[in-house]
Design brief:
single chain, about 550 residues, mainly beta, 2 domains, eight-stranded antiparallel sheet, seven-stranded antiparallel sheet, 3 helices, 45 strands, about 45% strand, elongated
């Protein structure tokens, strides 16, 4: 058989740059914190921060936010006025749960006049690019004079997005009757005006730069006691409004920054702050290099007796299961059944798939029915990824019970005479269970023996709005058929065939051995082991820049 392959998908970095000096020097050794990559702080935090992203990842999935521990643009400071001293705690957030998701890296083809981009960092139009929040621990306090002027703020300094701003003398005011506050600062792009009503709502249209309104949301929390005004926090969210939309989203192409595409780049308040999508190395090597062997995110391994599978599930573990028996040809290992479709009886020692729903963040598991204790009216089961038995009681009269797993309730019915149960396996009332992998793809077995489907949900294909489906057939003779319209150009490398679908998932079939072995590297899992994190490895191609045009041009030509 043959698979297809596109040009190997690239690994990208979001490089968050706040350049305080005229030029930056790469500072040697790197360090890892979770999935984020940043430069090791020496005596202080750095002016730049690199965050590694995989395809379909939101920035906030890797790093919800950063503070002064890793980035100078959010370093803690102190402001002293005549009314008191306050510590200032800034933070930069890439998503706020329940309010905005922020940007993410997607695989999409965008045709430009001189080239075609295959990926972009993208936000929905008119949504927040980020949030910069400043918390004043004991309040930024000022006396209110007879003209409603916050007289104590004059000439005080405040760092916003890495740039120092100065409160202009006599030009910040508070109206006690309307609870309206206006702050005027100088720095960055020029004169910055923040105007808001001190309530718990975000204001649109409350930010002006050099007298011109820019697209942003603003919330200032403050209070007044007698003639003292106390500012508790400032939250600022510049919006993703495009100067000339390339697609239906706000897209940032490789080797470019967000200011270049914004209708009002002044909304970032300073030319020194930017988010760059910087290209580094190759996720899968050049087209002539060896195909990876083993270690896939999803693995199907054939033997004469059966098919085995390995995969990781969202909020579950790494599963290694006997997937499909060749004799009889059925889901399971021949003695035990792997129950993948709701409505079938599950016997003791059988194992069964569970899904908490169809949402991107709904988890999945595979459990084995360990025991049914009809005397004490209990059912026992255990996770096939490891761990001890769990139990649930059922009603002696109705023979019904509920399994509490991961905060979800899965109802079941007990057949005491035959020591078996039926379970609401997908909380959806029927059908074949779709398992959510750790990379948020959907893996479906059946209902017919040997039928396997891998689906990239529409939510991960923001530019297409439809799911992408790859189909496989695990045959009795331990060979695999791939029937997918999504494979790209055919290629065979060193006795192994590999291909990529339109989302960037890589499929590697070992044709030099029998039975067949198929490794699937999802776009995230594929990239992870390929990135060299060292001063002399692939990341040496990252240029850390100011927002100066000469430096941006140097990056684009690198």
């Amino acid at each position: 058989m043959s698979l297809g392959m596109s040009t190997p998908k690239r690994v990208f970095f979001i490089v968050v740059l706040v350049a305080i000096v005229a030029s930056l020097v790469i500072m040697g050794e790197f360090y890892r914190t979770g999935a984020a990559i940043a430069y090791r702080p020496l005596s202080q935090a750095q002016d730049h921060l690199g965050i590694q992203l995989f395809f379909a990842d939101y920035i906030g999935k890797q790093v919800q936010g950063v503070d002064g521990a890793v980035w100078n643009g959010a370093v803690q400071s102190v402001v002293q006025t005549n009314e008191g001293r306050t510590d200032v705690y800034p933070s930069l957030q890439f998503w706020v749960p329940g309010e905005f998701n922020g940007g993410r890296l997607v695989f999409k083809q965008i045709k430009m006049p001189t080239y075609t981009a295959n990926a972009a960092l993208t936000w929905p139009l008119n949504t927040p690019l980020l949030q910069y929040k400043i918390v004043f621990s004991s309040g930024l306090q000022s006396k209110l004079d007879n003209n409603n002027v916050l007289e104590d703020l004059r000439d005080r300094k405040l760092r916003i997005l890495g740039t120092i701003f100065t409160f202009l003398s006599g030009q910040s005011t508070y109206n006690p009757g309307t609870n309206r506050i206006s702050l005027r600062l100088m720095g960055g792009y020029g004169t910055i005006d923040f105007t808001d009503v001190c309530d718990n709502q975000f204001t649109t249209g409350g930010v002006r730069v050099n007298g011109k309104s820019v697209d942003a949301h603003l919330r200032i929390l403050c209070s007044q006691i007698n003639n003292i005004v106390r500012i508790e926090s400032i939250e600022y969210r510049p919006l993703a409004t495009a100067a000339a939309a390339i697609t239906n989203d706000f897209d940032v192409l490789p080797k470019h920054g967000i200011q270049e595409y914004m209708l009002y780049p002044e909304a970032l308040l300073s030319p020194e702050f930017n988010l760059f999508l910087a290209q580094v190395g190759s996720g899968g090597g050049a087209a002539t290099s060896s195909a990876p062997s083993g270690g896939g995110d999803i693995v199907f391994d054939g033997t004469r007796k059966q098919w085995r599978a390995q995969f990781s599930l969202l909020r579950g573990g790494r599963y290694k299961i006997d997937l499909l028996s060749n004799s009889p040809y059925n889901w399971g290992d021949g003695d035990r059944t792997f129950v993948v479709t709701e409505g079938n009886w599950i016997n003791v020692q059988d194992y069964f798939a569970l899904s908490a729903g169809n949402g991107l963040n709904d988890p999945s598991w595979i459990y084995m029915l360990s025991k049914i204790d009809t005397q004490n009216k209990k059912v026992y089961w255990r996770d096939m990824a490891g761990g001890g038995n769990k139990e649930a009681r059922y009603d002696a009269g109705t023979k019904k019970g509920s399994m509490n797993i991961g905060g979800y309730s899965f109802d079941f019915d007990v057949d005491e005479a035959n020591k078996r149960i039926k379970v609401d396996q997908n909380l959806g009332g029927g059908g074949t269970v779709e398992l959510r992998t750790s990379n948020r793809l959907l893996l479906k077995f059946g209902p017919a023996p040997g039928d396997v489907q891998l689906e990239v949900p529409a939510e991960l294909r923001q530019e297409q709005f439809v799911p992408l489906i790859d189909n496989f057939k695990l045959l009795k003779d331990a060979t695999i058929q791939v029937t997918s319209p999504n494979m790209l150009d055919d290629i065979s490398v060193e006795g192994r065939e590999r291909g990529s679908d339109q989302f960037g998932n890589m499929f590697v079939l070992d044709t030099a051995r029998k039975p067949d072995n198929l490794n699937i590297f999802s776009s995230g899992a594929q990239a992870a082991p390929q990135v060299a994190v060292s001063a002399g490895g692939q990341t040496a191609g990252i240029l850390l820049l100011t927002d100066a045009q000469s430096d941006l041009k140097a990056m684009q030509n690198s």
